[in-house]
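Appendix B. One record, verbatim.
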Amino acid sequence: MKAINQLKTFQRILGEYPADTPLSKFLPGFYRQNKQMGSTDRRVANRLVYNYFRLGRALPNLPEDERLLVAEFLCNTQTNSYLQNFKPEWAVCVGFNDDDKLALVKTAYPDFKLEDVFPWSSQLSEGIDKEAFLKSFFCQPDLFIRVRNGYDHLVKAELTKAQVVFKDEGNGCYSLPNGTRLETIFAKQHWFEVQDYSSQQTGNYFRPQRWDSWWDACAASGGKSLLLHEDEPNIKLVVSDIRESILANLDERFQLAGLTKYQKKALDLTQNIDSVMHDYAFDGIILDAPCSGSGTWGRTPEMIAQFDTHKIEFFQKLQKSIAQNVVKYLKPGKPLIYITCSAFKGENEDVVDYLVNELGLKLQEKAVLKGYERKADTMFVARLSPAAS
């Protein structure tokens, strides 16, 4: 009976879910309207819905309840009441490795193909292991935090006290089980930032010098600025974003991190911004460019169902337009750090080729940050510079 009710709730959610909305925004509203659902009911419903979308574009013609069974089998390593009730022969095999589980699914559903989960693998960036990347969608990424300098021992003590299993990834980075209630464990302490592992690694490419002037051009939540400040507190910083609401939210986050000296500017970087920026010349620019976000779809698997390949071209044009308007404010020989959270070559290497061949920048280094290897986001970073005068 419990599993049947879980299925009915899943079907209701799927029936009411507007396809162009993030699940993280839709589900809280659904639960507010269905207050009879307890915390366990909500947790199970979350798991079922997210796992369903983790199957991506595979087996599109199967009924929803059957697709959900396949997803539950592939995305779990421990049995649960849902599998036990609807597919007991699979429930006993749920601890098998990925290849063996995929073989069982293929036997039951000959039309199943792993490459259908994410059917754009031919467009992935260079060096990405396509099979490993595809399999990573069956696993929820971890939660990562970056501990501020000097607070490691306090954070470890609190996590241990709360009996949270965590892993020290080095350089102040800790991985925790997704869903860890950090706001409960650290009610008033501000000892860390929540930031994905790969996002933290982009900081290795900044290398600011004391008293440098830097511009975080698409600042969003400010994570890259905070990395920069932690590395070199004495820089002069300008942060900008097209969304004024985003910039308003930065103040509190920066203040808690001890970042107090910075300028904010609301800028549309697809337009000529000389009237605002004509007096500026920077020792470094971070361009965390708008992108498809395909490297983060392990966290938002519903995006696989919403994606169309024309969006790669759309974002590539946007990235080129922004880069063209940004690089003119860079001092000769100083770095542009180009970052995306995309796994697509069209948004990564192809844009770097444009920066080199059309804008005259010199490529110093580039890397795909293969988050799929460690339950993190997959990102791309390149460090380039204009010719020294």
